[in-house]
Amino acid sequence: MHELSLAGEIKDLIDEKRGGSTVQSTTIEVGALSGVVPDAFNFCIDTVLKEAFGDKININVIYQQGEALCTCGKIYPVDDLFKPCPFCNGYNRKIKKGAEIFLKTIEIDN
Ligand SMILES: [Zn+2]
Questions:
Q1: Using an 8 Å Cβ cutoff, are 1 and 44 in contact?
Q2: pLDDT computed for residue 1 by the predictor
Q3: Positions of E strands within 1-110
Q4: Number of domains in the chain
Q5: In 51, 63, 76, 80, which residue has its Cα 20 to 30 A from 98's Cα atom?
Q6: 84 CA distance to ligand 1 centroid (A)?
């Protein structure tokens, strides 16, 4: 399962950054074009992070809409790669935003 391995990578990243401190909360930003299934990802991240850092961790997952730049010069929001440009109906565009998953913030107990 793709979502489970992503959750594991985020856990490792948090673990590396926290330096042994307790993690209070974390915010993860998920692009709409990153290929994750939101329900599956929410479930996996919740399970993996709580198992690693305890039940009290506050997990915020923000889903961000994608953005594409078309060869026709328009920038448009995109949440589905199978939809063409709404201006010229072309598929020749560059994804500007929304293809990635970021660990946005972590808050630790000092
Ligand atoms: Zn276009």
A1: yes
A2: 60
A3: 23-31, 58-64, 66-70, 75-78, 93-97, 101-108
A4: 1
A5: 51
A6: 8
User: Mean pLDDT over residues 41-66, rounded?
Assistant: 96
Q: Compute the average pLDDT of residues 32-61.
A: 95
**Taking ligand 1, which is a single-atom ion, which protein residues have CB atoms under 5 Å away?**
70, 72, 85, 87-88, 90
**CB-based contacts of 11, cutoff 8 Å, min separation 6:** 48, 49, 52, 53
Q: Tens of pLDDT along 56-69?
A: 999 999 999 999 99
Residue 18, domain member (yes or no): yes
Does residue 39 lie in a domain region? yes
The pTM score is 0.84
Domain span at residue 13 reads 2-65+97-108
Ligand 1 center from residue 77 Cα (angstroms): 12
Distance 65 CA to ligand 1 centre (A): 18
How far does residue 75's CA lie from ligand 1's centre (Å)? Answer: 8
Ligand 1 centroid to 33 CA: how many Å? 18
Domain contains 7: yes
Q: In CATH, what number is assigned to the domain containing residue 44?
A: 3.30.2320.50
